[in-house]
Design a protein that fits this description.
By secondary structure, chain A is mostly helical. Chain A is built from 7 helices and no strands. By secondary structure, chain B is an all-alpha fold. Classes of the chains: A mainly alpha, B mainly alpha.
């Protein structure tokens, strides 16, 4: 990584942007703003992919998530009546607190286990030379069957979505 | 570069945010947001672990390739289901979609 800024600052900035945008996606008053925050969070994840030497995956993340999934969500929000889409009362306060406890406990326990195992985990990544051209042979050479199943699954999902969303007259 | 543990902690935080949304939110579209956040947390872990392996491998990237494709179709089918649910019940509040309740 030969960025002009020290790498740790990029990591801190990416973490802040990703996590804040993720919280905003769930807590924004209007659903449209939530969808845009979700897109920003996905772009932050793509930044992590770039910093982990996976530029092709970062491109795919932006093309598929930001370009397709978020746009699809925006169209759905516009198709669902507006006052209905924005309605999102958080339920009773006890329920909300229970969700917060559950999520916090889970995240803290995973982070705690990782921190305990920290001395055994690599602190610095080994020097890597992972060109994008190496991805193709592994994808089509080592895992050809999952690739074909994925193609069938994609066409099945496309047909299923069409059949579900079709209006009978 | 930061250590592997810092990536795991970021991923755990993202998972926690997703679980919170999944358990508390009532709007079906917001629940879909939470599912996407959880999938992204898993993807980040795959890429980070593959990068820190010795020697580094592209297998993690291949798995994330599949995962992104699967998440895209999950979103397409899920949004189509939300549209159908809205057309039939004129609400997307998951607490009110309880027709199957006896």
């Amino acid at each position: 990584m030969d960025l002009s800024v020290p790498p740790d600052i990029t990591f801190v900035v990416l973490t802040t942007v990703t996590l804040l945008a993720a919280v905003m996606a769930l807590q924004a008053k209007e659903l449209i703003y939530g969808a845009i925050s979700l897109a920003i969070s996905f772009i932050g994840i793509a930044g992590f992919f770039v910093s982990l030497d996976a530029p092709y995956l970062a491109m795919l993340q932006i093309a598929v998530y930001v370009g397709a999934v978020v746009i699809l969500i925006l169209f759905t929000i516009m198709l669902v009546r507006r006052e209905e889409a924005d309605k999102d009362e958080a339920g009773e306060t006890g329920e909300s607190a229970a969700g917060l406890w559950l999520a916090g406990l889970l995240a803290v326990s995973i982070a705690g286990i990782a921190a305990l195992a920290g001395p055994n985990l690599p602190a610095t990544p080994p020097p890597a030379n992972l060109p994008v051209s190496e991805l193709g042979p592994v994808l089509a050479g080592a895992y050809p069957v999952p690739l074909i199943i994925l193609a069938l699954l994609l066409s099945g999902a496309l047909l299923g979505a069409l059949v579900l969303a079709k209006v009978d007259r | 570069m930061p250590s592997l543990v810092s990536y795991i902690i970021v991923s755990a935080a993202l998972l926690g945010i997703g679980i919170y949304g999944l358990s508390v939110k009532r709007n079906a579209i917001r629940i879909l947001f939470a599912v996407e956040l959880i999938v992204n947390a898993a993807n980040l872990n795959f890429i980070a672990f593959a990068r820190y392996m010795n020697p580094p491998t592209v297998s993690g990237q291949v798995i994330v390739f599949y995962s992104i494709a699967a998440a895209a179709m999950e979103a397409a089918v899920g949004l189509a289901l939300i549209l159908v649910a809205f057309r039939l019940n004129s609400t997307i509040d998951v607490r009110k979609l309880n027709k199957l309740k006896g």
